[in-house]
């Protein structure tokens, strides 16, 4: 925490008021090539909370995240992020979300710093260079700033992607299986980052396959299946055994 | 006011990123330039140029070379974006979609324009054309830039569409060639009027400008529909 | 059909397929249009080959024009309809609009191909050349290329929302472009003498009647084919949807 001077703060000073929901999804439907992926999905994430999204592959987790960040359009239903309706205020939504996914969303031929400066310009981040350096320091990439992304390992790229996602001080983090591709140090690092981000009042929605992590890192656990929310529970009074049983009950004998 | 400034800054950021990208992989530049030159050389043989026919054929030869060369370059910017994570990297950010279009257009225009302006003197030398007076040269450069703008404005729009298919290289010319016919006609005629002044010609340069404005505004407005999912 | 029914039951109503949708749409409209087309087309063929007098200069060749003009009209009408549907689609995305636009393109390209062939057949004896680069011909040819580009893009992109939107964009840009092409070719041809198309001067009243009836007949034919092509588009989409459900 001490390293985080004003410039390195993970959150903007003026976070949205607490009575606005970070995510509010109502009856969301989406099909790809006529195949329904999301069917009447409704979900609410209160401001400042962390939510873990569980579900087997192909149940619509990634699609949901793509709609939330504005990369896909909702088929029907409504999506609101921090009170912004996705039909009218997509730009405001994009400005307030940080997104880490399987793809790093970085430019391979540019150096680490060039990437961050480029995204800094697109997000209109003030004093982007200082902020980029502080964040790169945080993710342990400060010594690699002038290397091209192409030359980095998978885990290092993922770290830079984290810096990119936090660059514009988003008030909501969307993470699609953030632990993939990271080594032990990396996992510890993002856990610290997440804890700190949440402590500053940021809201987090992340998907994962690891039930332990879901339980440890979230306030709420949500399981989706067939494009719908089939289970939702606070983590305070939830044990790993219960969660595992529920999960296996939903997905049959599939290995978790 | 602030919106405009941010808009321009975003265009500049994307454009500058593309330029750096392009400078790091020089193949396209060289390829386009070599292609344009080769077409000029081929034309020299196919038409067996004489001093009295050269003025009639040269503008056509020049523009055929330019059009093919620019189509080679057009798929490139967006294809590069599509390659890895598609345009998502840009679409993720709160950048105005018009800014993305204009930046891609300026990038294409710059690459095409540079290749053409380098090819122009070579063309004049190979075909032995008198273009070296100040006003003639300036008008020619203006025509070249306006012609490239017309082709690039439609081409940038459709390269995104074509890039979404398997048959990118095939589809792009099929979509773009028919649409840019007015630009091609006016650019070729304007060029030949510069080389061999003639009376009773319509104001080709102004027409070219008008076509550019029409294509540019239509494409800018329609671009958001071809990129968003 | 049994399969479709079964599927729509198994997936709790989420399948949009099933017997109801596979049924032919507007059967009455289709029949009426078909009958009307057959009647007017027979009448117009009688008018063209029996009723109307032969032009003194052009001879038998003139009869080609009675087919050429209506097919050209239908070919261009369908482009306008395609572009119009494209504009509506961008504001109000509805797959039915897109089916209609694509049907229009498919029908239109057939009409326009016939137009070009008939035009060339007429031009050879009258102008002494299969093809002349005059504004009308050039614009028609470019229009034909746009149709082909549109259909190629649509078939490469598959039945997706992006494909529909891309098609709409091509239609709109094309509709803006065609008049510009016409004008610019006209200016380009400015100083060159253009062979005048033979319909200059007063036509005999019989010829006017014949061409009017032919226009009506071909417009009806266009409408009839549109309904069929639309139905085909709908069923293809439906079939694809069901196939995905089965997998």
UniProtKB/TrEMBL annotation, chain A:
InterPro entries: AAA+_ATPase, ABC_transporter-like_ATP-bd, ABC_transporter_ATP-binding, ABC_transptr_haem_export_CcmA, P-loop_NTPase. Gene3D superfamilies: P-loop containing nucleotide triphosphate hydrolases (3.40.50.300). Keywords: ATP-binding, Cytochrome c-type biogenesis, Nucleotide-binding, Transport. Belongs to the ABC transporter superfamily. This is ABC transporter ATP-binding protein. It comes from the Bacteria. The keyword Transport applies. GO terms for molecular function: ATP binding; ATP hydrolysis activity; transmembrane transporter activity. One of its GO terms (biological process) is cytochrome complex assembly. NCBIfam families: ccmA. Residues 23-251 form the ABC transporter domain. The keyword ATP-binding applies.
Automatic annotation (TrEMBL), chain B:
It is a multi-pass membrane protein. GO terms for biological process: cytochrome c biosynthetic process; cytochrome complex assembly. The chain crosses the membrane at residues 29-47, 53-74, 105-131, 137-163, 170-192, 204-227. One of its GO terms (cellular component) is plasma membrane. Keywords: Cell inner membrane, Cell membrane, Cytochrome c-type biogenesis, Membrane, Transmembrane, Transmembrane helix, Transport. Pfam families: CcmB. Coiled coil: none annotated. GO terms for molecular function: heme transmembrane transporter activity. It is found in: Cell inner membrane. It comes from the Bacteria. Required for the export of heme to the periplasm for the biogenesis of c-type cytochromes. Belongs to the CcmB/CycW/HelB family. This is Heme exporter protein B.
From TrEMBL, chain C:
It is a multi-pass membrane protein. The chain crosses the membrane at residues 28-51, 71-91, 103-123, 135-153, 165-185, 205-225. The keyword Mitochondrion does not apply. GO terms for cellular component: plasma membrane. It is found in: Membrane. GO terms for molecular function: heme binding; heme transmembrane transporter activity. Residues 35-190 form the Cytochrome c assembly protein domain. Keywords: Cytochrome c-type biogenesis, Membrane, Transmembrane, Transmembrane helix. InterPro entries: Cyt_c_assembly (IPR002541), Cyt_c_biogenesis_CcmC (IPR003557), Cyt_c_biogenesis_CcsA/CcmC (IPR045062). GO terms for biological process: cytochrome complex assembly. Belongs to the CcmC/CycZ/HelC family. This is Heme exporter protein C. It comes from Dictyobacter arantiisoli.
């Amino acid at each position: 925490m001490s390293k985080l001077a004003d410039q390195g703060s993970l959150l903007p000073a003026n976070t949205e008021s607490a009575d606005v929901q970070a995510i509010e999804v109502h009856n969301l439907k989406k099909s790809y090539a006529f195949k329904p992926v999301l069917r009447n999905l409704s979900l609410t994430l209160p401001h400042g909370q962390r939510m873990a999204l569980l579900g087997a592959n192909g149940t619509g987790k990634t699609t949901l995240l793509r709609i939330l960040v504005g990369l896909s359009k909702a088929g029907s239903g409504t999506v609101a992020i921090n009170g912004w309706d996705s039909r009218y205020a997509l730009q405001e939504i994009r400005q307030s979300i940080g997104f880490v996914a399987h793809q790093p969303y970085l430019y391979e031929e540019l150096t680490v710093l060039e990437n961050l400066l480029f995204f800094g310009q697109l997000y209109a981040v003030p004093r982007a260079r200082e902020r980029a350096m502080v964040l790169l320091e945080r993710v342990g990439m400060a010594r690699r700033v002038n290397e091209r992304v192409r030359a980095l390992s998978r885990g290092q790229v993922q770290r830079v992607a984290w810096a990119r996602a936090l660059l514009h001080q988003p008030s909501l983090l969307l993470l699609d299986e953030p632990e993939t591709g990271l080594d032990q140090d990396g996992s510890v690092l993002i856990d610290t980052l997440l804890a700190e981000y949440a402590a500053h009042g940021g809201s987090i929605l992340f998907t994962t396959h690891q039930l332990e992590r879901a339980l440890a890192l979230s306030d709420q656990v949500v399981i989706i299946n067939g494009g719908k929310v089939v289970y939702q529970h606070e983590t305070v009074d939830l044990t790993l055994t219960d969660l595992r049983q529920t999960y296996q009950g939903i997905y049959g004998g599939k290995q978790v | 006011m602030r919106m405009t400034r941010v808009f321009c800054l975003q265009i500049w950021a994307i454009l500058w990123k593309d330029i750096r990208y392009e400078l790091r992989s020089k193949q396209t530049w060289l390829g386009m330039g070599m292609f344009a030159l080769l077409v000029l050389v081929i034309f020299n043989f196919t038409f067996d140029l004489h001093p009295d026919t050269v003025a009639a054929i040269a503008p056509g030869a020049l523009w055929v070379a330019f059009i093919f060369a620019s189509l080679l370059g057009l798929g490139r910017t967006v294809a590069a974006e599509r390659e890895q994570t598609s345009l998502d990297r840009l679409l993720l950010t709160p950048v105005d979609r018009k800014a993305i279009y204009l930046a891609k257009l300026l990038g294409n225009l710059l690459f095409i324009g540079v290749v053409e302006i380098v090819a122009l003197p070579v063309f004049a030398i190979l075909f032995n054309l008198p273009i070296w007076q100040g006003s003639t040269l300036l008008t020619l450069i203006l025509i070249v830039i306006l012609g490239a703008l017309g082709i690039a404005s439609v081409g940038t729009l459709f390269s995104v569409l074509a890039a979404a298919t398997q048959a990118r290289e095939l589809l792009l010319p099929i979509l773009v060639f028919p649409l840019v016919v007015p630009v091609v006609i006016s650019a070729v005629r304007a060029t030949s009027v510069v080389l061999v002044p003639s009376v009773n010609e319509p104001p080709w340069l102004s027409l070219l400008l008008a076509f550019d404005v029409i294509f540019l505004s239509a494409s800018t407005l329609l671009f958001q529909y071809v990129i968003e999912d | 059909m049994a399969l479709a029914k079964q599927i729509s039951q198994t997936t709790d109503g989420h399948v949009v397929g099933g017997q109801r949708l596979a049924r032919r749409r507007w059967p009455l409209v289709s029949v009426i249009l078909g009958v009307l087309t057959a009647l007017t087309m027979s009448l117009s063929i009688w008018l063209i080959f029996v009723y109307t007098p032969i032009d003194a200069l052009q001879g038998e060749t003139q009869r080609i024009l009675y087919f050429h003009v209506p097919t050209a009209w239908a070919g261009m009408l369908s482009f306008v309809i395609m572009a119009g549907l494209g504009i509506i689609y961008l504001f109000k995305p509805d797959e039915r609009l897109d089916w209609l636009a694509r049907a229009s393109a498919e029908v239109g390209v057939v009409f326009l191909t016939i137009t070009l062939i008939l035009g060339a057949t007429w031009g050879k004896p009258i102008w002494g050349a299969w093809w002349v680069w005059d504004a009308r011909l050039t614009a028609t040819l470019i229009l034909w290329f746009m149709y082909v580009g549109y259909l190629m893009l649509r078939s490469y992109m598959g039945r997706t929302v992006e494909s529909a939107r891309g098609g709409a964009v091509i239609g709109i840009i094309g509709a803006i472009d065609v008049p510009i092409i016409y004008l610019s070719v006209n200016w380009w041809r400015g100083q060159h003498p253009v062979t005048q198309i033979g319909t200059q001067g007063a036509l005999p009243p019989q010829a006017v009647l014949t061409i009017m009836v032919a226009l009506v007949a071909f417009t009806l034919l266009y409408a009839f084919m549109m309904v069929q092509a639309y139905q085909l588009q709908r069923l293809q989409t439906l079939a694809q949807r069901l196939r995905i459900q089965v997998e």
